[in-house]
Amino acid sequence: xxxxxxxxxxxxxxxxxxxxxxxxxxxxxxxxxxxxxxxxxxxxxxxxxxxxxxxxxxxxxxxxxxxxxxxxxxxxxxxxxxxxxxxxxxxxxxxxxxxxxxxxxxxxxxxxxxxxxxxxxxxxxxxxxxxxxxxxxxxxxxxxxxxxxxxxxxxxxxxxxxxxxxxxxxxxxxxxxxxxxxxxxxxxxxxxxxxxxxxxxxxxxxxxxxxxxxxxxxxxxxxxxxxxxxxxxxxxxxxxxxxxxxxxxxxxxxxxxxxxxxxxxxxxxxxxxxxxxxxxxxxxxxxxxxxxxxxxxxxxxxxxxxxxxxxxxxxxxxxxxxxxxxxxxxxxxxxxxxxxxxxxxxxxxxxxxxxxxxxxxxxxxxxxxxxxxxxxxxxxxxxxxxxxxxxxxxxxxxxxxxxxxxxxxxx
Length: 411
Known about the structure:
Residues 391-411 are annotated as: Disordered. The chain is α+β, with helices and mostly antiparallel strands.
């Protein structure tokens, strides 16, 4: 593994950082989240059409750039630095890889070029209220209990008739960008309880009128840069993602989840690094007892600890971009670094850090909201440890069924 960034990756980072520095400052972020979409549509068009960010990791035959997860992680880190409100995470990180992995050739040809061009945004809607569980990061997807398990609750699907269509019933909460996306990718159960299985369905919302039976409501979110929605379906027409209903959607969700964790970790690292840089600049200017508070040894120690946390999390995030199996642990480390760094940033900014006018609270709310949406950290680590077999044989783990007292690992 070559840990050095390539010239192309450095150029991607420089270009994105310069553009966001001009158009996504704290005041720009506050203005963007107040729009109907929840982001700056003009800036999104520049990022999509000018830089090709939505299609960065998509194959070239579908209009993408054909880059890999490392380039996507670089972009996500820069988006995190600016707390960029945009459909990038929901569209390029969560939804597009599932369409590319499970869709028929006809579906990929119809959807992915529009996604790559920024003309179509997408959102992944999973019932059960836990995105991290649905992506296999904090729980087991076997049986579908994470989303109703075929019983009451969740989203249910049934064949509409002889035309091969489907109808969806139910609702999903906390759908990232679900209120504005032009395409909903919905996880639903079919087959009843004895033969229940989870499938993914497509619902287009970018037509001249909304599909019948679909109601989308933007929810009040702790972090306004992460707009969430409730999606309600009442006999809503949908298209199955894939050629037939034998597709293993849960396995695809788990694979996509591990890859998404690396991108999400990089984004959290970017936010933590920016919060730390702003704090270092502030303590160099704020004076107490006739000298800058950054010159006090206690403050230096706190900042040094934060620097080590952020850099360690950054290394973990880019390792996960190379090896997605490490995605869950990298995400846990990045979310923890973001939480600790933003909390310290508020403290070290003193009284001004608690005011709505200062950007410190924007980073703090991003940390709290990310852990609610993608964590919590202890569950990410627990699930990764069980997969690795630290508490006994995990998936693919070799070794005795039970470890002896001397072999047990405290986590």
